[in-house]
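Sequence in, structure out. Go.
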Amino acid sequence: MQSPALIPPRFDNLDFGERQALALAKEIHADFVLLDDKVARRFAESEALKVKGTLGIVADAAKAGVFSKMESAHFETRLQNVTSCVRISRSAMPD
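Output:
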């Protein structure tokens, strides 16, 4: 796995993995960056990076025939359930 040569200070308010992903995407002129976090997605878009989420990757794979529409719907449902659990967990955390 490749690490970016430099992480700009303006990325400091993001999580470690998001900083790494965004810096590397800019450095290698990636076609897109895979992010699910809303804040990181908005930041990436402000940096003129194309963003895809996990559900977008699943949809692209279904369109390409990697798996069936039924399997795609199953993945989407499971991902939405996981996302809901993460949102609930974060909202239950003290400030």
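Check: The mean pLDDT is 81. The CA atoms of residues 58 and 75 lie 7 Å apart.
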